[in-house]
């Protein structure tokens, strides 16, 4: 009986977590009706670091990029909504940034990596050859206590993707450090979590060579 109630609680929490993104998905669908997305786009999806990348199309001018990030999402949410934010577009490439919220919500490095594996596996089941790239989980000043877990998760994900065909780990961490190897706080907004335009400017030359 105790197991039943624990299972019910888990399902209820998962449902609530996923329902909170219904408005995001509806907004994407409405946007697609109003302005059809490019054919076979490069889909960028994941959490708020993707959502707030307002200059994405300008940064990668000439590339058919499509921003389908939804703030607060974890890797499990991206997997849950993969049909709506990735596969519906039959993308030529998938670029994911997520995992930071998973860790902040006390999921281990191993759990975070497994969630990435679940997403990758699902996408490849439907599009076996689509290029799949993962932007490394950044270190945020406001989440310093999670840095060891972030670093471990990045290594696990990097090692996993290195064994997969047409999959790459895009490491943006070095670009966010100063000459002494320390994270530059000037790349972040006042919340010390989300990046400002200077932060994204550091990402662009790192990500650009990976785009098809």
TrEMBL record:
<dbReference type="InterPro" id="IPR013830">
    <property type="entry name" value="SGNH_hydro"/>
</dbReference>
<keyword id="KW-0732">Signal</keyword>
<dbReference type="InterPro" id="IPR051532">
    <property type="entry name" value="Ester_Hydrolysis_Enzymes"/>
</dbReference>
<dbReference type="InterPro" id="IPR036514">
    <property type="entry name" value="SGNH_hydro_sf"/>
</dbReference>
<protein>
    <submittedName>
        <fullName>Lysophospholipase L1-like esterase</fullName>
    </submittedName>
</protein>
<dbReference type="Pfam" id="PF13472">
    <property type="entry name" value="Lipase_GDSL_2"/>
</dbReference>
<feature type="domain" description="SGNH hydrolase-type esterase">
    <location>
        <begin position="53"/>
        <end position="201"/>
    </location>
</feature>
<feature type="signal peptide">
    <location>
        <begin position="1"/>
        <end position="17"/>
    </location>
</feature>
<dbReference type="GO" id="GO:0004622">
    <property type="term" value="F:phosphatidylcholine lysophospholipase activity"/>
</dbReference>
């Amino acid at each position: 009986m105790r197991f039943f109630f624990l299972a019910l609680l888990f399902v209820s929490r998962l449902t609530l977590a996923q329902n909170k993104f219904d408005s995001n998905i509806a907004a994407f669908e409405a946007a697609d009706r109003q302005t059809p997305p490019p054919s076979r786009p490069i889909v960028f999806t994941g959490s708020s670091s993707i959502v707030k990348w307002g200059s994405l199309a300008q940064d990668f001018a000439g590339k058919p990029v499509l921003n389908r990030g939804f703030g607060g999402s974890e890797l499990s949410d991206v997997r849950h909504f993969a049909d709506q934010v990735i596969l519906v577009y039959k993308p030529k490439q998938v670029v994911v940034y997520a995992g930071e919220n998973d860790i902040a919500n006390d999921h281990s490095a191993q759990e975070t990596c497994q969630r990435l594996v679940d997403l990758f596996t699902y996408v490849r089941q439907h599009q076996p050859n689509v290029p799949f790239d993962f932007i490394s989980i950044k270190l945020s000043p406001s989440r310093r206590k999670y840095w060891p877990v972030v670093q471990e998760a990045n290594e696990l994900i990097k090692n996993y993707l290195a064994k997969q065909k047409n999959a790459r780990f895009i490491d943006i961490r070095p670009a966010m450090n100063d000459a002494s190897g320390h994270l530059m706080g000037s790349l972040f907004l006042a919340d010390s979590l989300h990046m400002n335009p200077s932060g994204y400017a550091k990402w662009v030359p790192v990500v650009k060579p990976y785009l098809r």
